[in-house]
Design goal:
Helix 2 packs antiparallel against helix 3 and helix 3 runs antiparallel to helix 4. This protein has 108 residues and is mostly helical. The longest helix has 42 residues.
């Protein structure tokens, strides 16, 4: 039951529940599933950090250069962050569905 709760916690407390389950439980299988769910909860966070770096690395210098030279930003410079946001949304939905499926599998 704790293993499934670790996976389902992606809906209400993504980091807290797997960490608590990992440190409280003494069963190796429960610890394995808690660690696995924690890693799957960390993936979107890492991707979000990369997204912020990409947005600030492309949008802010582009807006600064536009204010100085009045040049139009290139298509990739303007749409790159939007494409990465779309990629993030897809990855987040995949991770969410995967956690729910794993939680159901563990319950069986």
């Amino acid at each position: 039951m704790l293993s499934a709760l670790s996976y389902f916690s992606v809906l209400f407390a993504p980091f807290i529940v797997p960490i608590i389950v990992f440190f409280v439980s003494h069963d190796k299988e429960v610890k394995y599933h808690a660690k696995k769910s924690l890693i799957s909860h960390i993936i979107p966070v890492i991707l979000m950090i990369v997204l912020f770096i990409i947005i600030f690395a492309t949008v802010i210098p582009a807006s600064y250069s536009m204010s100085m030279t009045f040049e139009q930003p290139s298509f990739w410079m303007a749409s790159g962050p939007l494409l990465f946001i779309l990629l993030y949304a897809i990855v987040y939905i995949i991770v969410l569905i995967w956690n729910i499926i794993q939680g159901i599998r563990v319950l069986r």
